[in-house]
Amino acid sequence: MGVTARGNGTHTREDAALGAVTVLPAQEPPAAGPGPDPCRSTADGYAPHPDDLPDGLLVADHAGRVVCFNAAAARITGLRPQDVLGRPVEQALPLEDLEGRRWWQLTDPYGGLAIRTGQPERNLLLPGGREVLVAARYVRERPTGPVLRLVVTLRGTEARRRTERSHAELIATVAHELRSPLTSVKGFTATLLAKWERFTDDQKKLMLETVDADANRVTRLIAELLDISRIDSGRLEVRRQPVDLAAAVRRHVDAHIAAGQPQDRFTVRVAGPLPELWADPDKVDQVLGNLLENAVRHGEGEVTIDVAPAHPGELTERRCDATAVTVSDEGPGIPEESMSRVFTRFWRGSKRGGTGLGLYIVKGIVEAHGGTITVGRAAGGGAEFRFTLPVGAPAYMA
């Protein structure tokens, strides 16, 4: 849908800024401006048409009449361009804030303070309750001169609502995961304090071990939340030290065997020589622990861990040396339609349980090291996770 244009065919310097959109005749012709910007020359195809813009655009002239209303603005507001163009902006787009006050009267772009340059983006309401994100810029010939034109951008609220839903889901998940261990801790400690003398030493030990395990669960959840916050804000720190990746893998396998898993369920294959790896040992342990736990808990059959030099094509950066770790099992695997969502928040697969944040954090840690992580189907039919870690550099050189 193109921008509806009416008028006497004259063009002003608004045309150069709006892709040669015809401006409606104003009560008084605006002052002549400088020549067209060569970077926006329509002959060279540089000047975009207003309908090419992803956000809604409304422009009013020096008299406050709408001279441009693009296709995105029509889609976002539900208004037709022919019903908007040529009308005073406060009538064409009657906006109210969330308290029911008329926004144009509050901001008064043409008669307000002459030092104002615009309005920051805010959530406003159209008639009927439709929400829209609105920002405005006042274009003046000189810093405190009259407004030559008013440029308003419009955006839908769907992306913000998705973010809000994601935050709400995170809060709900955390609240649910915290409730169970904290209830257990509270119950056992209250019972021990009230009836200490009635329990045997073995009973006391069992209850204290349960409290300790639940406290560790709460600690892990809080650590996950901190990791998510750092990943989302780009503040995840990597403190690089020499890491023996093969030894780290064997250490995690030994821990699973000590916890009761049969020794013949694990196969560790190391293809050397491996490049010297500088990485954050705690975060590498976090990645290995999560992938092995997923393979043991959700997979079946033998769990195979391959450690080998990475292929050059796997690296996101131009580096020659990296180590790759592949963790695979013989379980049902991950459905093809779900593989694109494995590393997103709250993905839990077919089996419920857990926060669904582990693989999201794993991906963030690997990428913070400059590596990559992928998921696929193993030769035995199960899930296969493969991540690469570039050799890196010491923390004091990073």
Task: Tell me about this structure.
The protein is of the alpha+beta class and 398 residues long. Helices cover 35% and strands 19% of the residues. It has ten helices and twelve strands. The chain has a five-stranded antiparallel β-sheet with strand order 2-1-5-4-3. It has a five-stranded mixed β-sheet with strand order 7-9-10-12-11, covered by helices on one side. It has a two-stranded antiparallel ribbon with strand order 6-8. The chain is elongated. The two termini are 51 Å apart.
Secondary structure elements and their pairing?
Elements: H1 13-17, E1 56-60, E2 66-69, H2 71-77, H3 81-84, H4 89-92, H5 103-107, E3 118-125, E4 131-140, E5 147-155, H6 158-194, H7 201-233, E6 241-243, H8 245-258, E7 266-270, E8 277-279, H9 281-298, E9 303-309, E10 322-328, H10 358-368, E11 372-377, E12 383-390
Parallel strand pairs: 7-9
Antiparallel strand pairs: 1-2, 1-5, 3-4, 4-5, 6-8, 9-10, 10-12, 11-12
Helix pairs in contact: 6-7, 7-10, 8-9, 9-10
Class computed from helices, strands and strand pairing: alpha+beta
Shape: elongated
Helix content: 25-40%
The main sheet orders its strands as 2-1-5-4-3
List the secondary-structure elements in sequence, H or E: HEEHHHHEEEHHEHEEHEEHEE
Q: Which residue ranges are poorly predicted, with pLDDT under 50 across at least 5 consecutive positions?
A: 1-43
The separation of the N and C termini measures 51 Å
